[in-house]
Amino acid sequence: MAAIDCRHYRAGQCRSCSWIERTMADQLEAKQEAVMARIDPKRTMRWEAPFASRPEGFRNKAKLVVGGSLASPTLGILDEHQRGVDLPDCRLYPPALRAALPVLRRWIQRAGLRPYSVPERRGELKYLLLTLDPPSGKWMLRLVLRSRAPLERLRRALPWLRQRLPALALVSVNLQPRHAAIVEGEVEIPLGPQPRLALHVNGLRLWLQPGGFWQTNTEVAAALYRTARAWADGLRPRTVLDLYCGIGGFAHHLAAPGREVEGLELHPAAVAAAAAVSHPPTTPPPRFAVADAEGLDPKRLAGRDLVVVNPPRRGLGEALCASLQRARPRWLLYSSCNPDSLARDLARLVGYRGKRARLFDMFPHTPHAEVLVLLRAIDDGAPDPCPAEPAA
What is the pTM of this model? Predict the structure, then answer.
């Protein structure tokens, strides 16, 4: 039996969920087997039970291509002819996002935001980018426009939208003038009323700025951070360095009394958002700085008890792996959304041995998986708090 019944999939309109015809149990088993075969073929790590996702309503983000015409805009994807396909009731989105789509469609018409036609290279509105904070129900709307021309009409129409969608906490415009397969441009124009969206995760309040990265599945992301915190607490590290820290998800979850946590991130806006998070007086807040992890001086890695890495899909790369090899922090906690690049990096990190691992089903109905791996420096000489056990 299929995981969910999707009329758009049955009609051949959307094939994004390539595994939707498989049961959730079958999907999870197949992912676990594939990941273990790729990164731990000898089953030397201790594999915890995978964390499953809900089959529907789990996505906190929607990237909607705007197509069609001003009289009848479509919100969804493009077909093979680069024409808009309307997906008004995608089952992956939670009810709060699905309920907003008819209102957004009417608002596009009222504001005169003509959809961009890829074949004709005409129009203005390319994408609607929505991000939801499920615990609070608040959400962010970003509009990707071709130019500034519709800005004044858009501003005049905003009160109408906010009146009908009071949970809308933040609106901004991104300018992407190029006729290319690029979603976002470099210019962001905030329209208020707030500068950032509050994200409530495991008792923390993180802050997401327009254009910032956040995981697709909040429930699974929360489990990922809880697992990282539990594993780190078992190691009792005094110093933690979080590379690719983004808005500080890992760094803030690993903060604890008597522990020094530092996060490094390439994007200044993300660093500012991470630094705005509050902690109880008994917990020293992490420190954050702008830095490129891939060009980091190995001296900044040396002497750390634990280094956390959460790189983009391409992985750490040869240079950073070499720096980690030279600096040899005692423990590495590697969060990966790409088992292939993770496997390449593990092969480069010859001075480390994988100890624990867990799969998180961040992307149901697809072969993609998020994996958390704990590695220990082979010759660090310290007692081992988590001896490896072969998986069953």
Answer: 0.94
